[in-house]
Amino acid sequence: MIPAKFDYIKASSISEAISLLDKHGDDAKLLSGGHSLIPAMKLRLSRPEVLIDISGISGMNSITEDGNEIVIGANCTHADIVNSDLINSDLNILAQTAKHIGDIQVRNRGTIGGSLAHADPAADYPAVVLACDAKIVVEGKNGGRTIAATDFFLGIFTTAIAEDEIITSIRFPKVANGNYQKFFQSASRFAVVGVAAVKEGNSVKVGVTGVAGTPYRATAVENAYSGSSDAALHAVDGVEDELMSDHFADEEYRAHLAKVMVKKALEA
Amino acid sequence: MQISVKINGKTYDHDIEPRISLAQYLRETLNLTGTHIGCDTSGCGACTVHVDGAAAKACTLLAVQVDGCDIKTIEGMANGNEMHPIQEAFKDNHGLQCGFCTPGMVMTAADILKNNPNPSEEEIRHGLEGNFCRCTGYHNIVKSIQQAAEKINA
Predict the structure, then answer these.
(1) A63-173 in CATH: which number?
(2) Which residues of B touch A5 (CB under 8 A)?
(3) Which of A236, A266, B53, B149 could form a disulfide with A229 if both were Cys (CB 3.0 to 4.6 A apart)?
């Protein structure tokens, strides 16, 4: 399969990428790892007229410490995250998660910024950015802003990023006690259900992906939790009307899986 | 668009349409047909090559994206008539049946062994998640990679 014709432009700076986005609007797509976009273009699910390659922009692929935060450049690949000593020691939940995305070849090319911007409802990172209260840093023609993870995901393949904006980095607080539990779709390795839990004393923050069209914070679980994993029974409270259903898992099975995976995450 | 790519040690300059994948470029422009196209949507791994030393699926990379990169394909693994230890191990252990997935398997195996010279069976199987063998000959593929690891480490 060959994608429809497009123009390819390699941006050398963030400001150049933003002005190209501003100029081409809806007709343009940003390309970084391309591991969601290129297959979608082959299948004609996406048909951009201009591809703006941001993979070569310097300063967007570092992982650094800033006080109590870890700042991850949007162009960092899943493999960069798996292999980062800083992330393995101070944000281990993210390394655990990245390790199970796709396969070796996909992890070598796919990026965290691209995955978040794509907002696939079965992607892994959304659960973790939600549970960690990470912040997504974007830049656009009117300057930069920071979007809280809880305000970022708006629906299936839909985020709060404006048309002229580009994700430049993701800021995570350091997390001592977090874990990610994933029920794999056995062929694609996507999450049928993915649950991230971040514990602090007797409280917990829980992010859920794959269950509803929009990844969510399981606040009913968080409110019910006081140390016992019985709180997992509330895993789909409030999203009962938004449960996804497909040939891998219908609504009832997905809701059940969500409770099981939340329980595992609370007990880990 | 003009690109300059180093492939198996030799530099190639071509004017290429942006929508052509690296896999097509290798096969149709350079006649390097060892890189196979299976699913063409990054599932099966038959098109695996190394880009700057890391395994990648050539069907999901545009040739223009690898402008300036160093690529290695299955044709670059042997040293003249001497097969790479991974190729030798696949031959010795009946690690291929129809052979369609083999180039991708060998390239992924090289990435696994580069990052983990002594992988356990489980680590090898986890590492091969992105490569499908439709003959289902996984046992001997895993055995081949285990033997290759021993040879390389000897």
Answers:
(1) 3.30.465.10
(2) 17, 19
(3) A266
